[in-house]
Amino acid sequence: MRPPSSPSSSSASRTSSASSRTSYDTLAPADAALGYKQLVQVEEAFLTLKHTPELRPIYHRKDDRVRAHVLLSWLALLLVRVAELRVEERLGQRCSWTRIRTELQRMHLGTFHGPAGVVYQRTETTSFQAQLFRAIGVPEPPASSASTPPAPPGRSRYTRMPTSQP
Question: CB–CB of 105/111 below 8 Å?
Answer without folding.
Answer: no
